[in-house]
Fold this protein.
Amino acid sequence: MNSASGVQFAITKIEKMTESDNIPKINKGSVPRHVAIIMDGNGRWARQRMQGRSEGHAEGVNSVHNITQAASDCGIKYLTLYAFSTENWARPAEEVDTLMHLIGWAIRKETPELKANNVHINLIGDISRLPEQVQADLRAGCEATKDCDGLNLNLCLSYSSRWELTRAVREIARLAAEGALNPDDISESAFEQYLSTSQFPDPDLLIRTGGEQRLSNFLLWQAAYSELYFTPTLWPDFSKEEFFGILEDFSHRERRFGKTSDQVNAPTQI
Ligand code: IPE
Ligand code: IPE
Ligand code: MG
């Protein structure tokens, strides 16, 4: 996707705005219900400018603001952002401290606007590992937006798939050992109830910024059939226009879920 056609797509959508508000009316069928993003490249963005990594992370908060707004405007129902992984705890203490401080600050700053835009904040991950004050800030954000029924903004903090899957297996094994769960009843859908994403559909589209082509322990179960999109753009440079361009690319993909093209294109039987 070149950026010119991405911009064109965004403009086309914006032209379809209703007279009364700023919400683009995009053809419902082509908008993914759930978009997940691995927000990578803050450190490299800062290094390119001879700045410290903290500056890159701070700049990344602006992209979170812009992309959340864009997702909400497009009618995306779930936006899941990988903000801090289990493995990120192993970074230098100073960088971890900066990130924790930024997370608390950003959630306090953004909550009023998120609430005004009907965005519901959800947390995914081992939140108990975060500093007490940050946990309190996050809980306040969740509480303030708990009645919002627009976009679900899922923030993955101290999250990794292996953490989540191990936790699920531990819980299932405990229930089975207590006799509260029959192992024969563990189906795929029953298993999913033990994941932190149990209330959400699987991501339709998974985007990674920053140029790496890997999942880095993100949604390994849930992304089984997600469409993947890797962009070299560093997260602080990731714009609404590029996001709209990726949505356009997604709208041309054929999701077959193991079936043939003919099958998925067959007219639906009534
Ligand atoms: C992503 O940017 C933010 C987090 C992982 C917290 P990075 O900090 O990983 O940036 P790069 O990959 O070093 O450029
Ligand atoms: C993935 O980025 C985690 C987040 C974006 C929160 P990393 O920068 O930690 O990933 P690796 O280490 O390059 O795989
Ligand atoms: Mg990185």
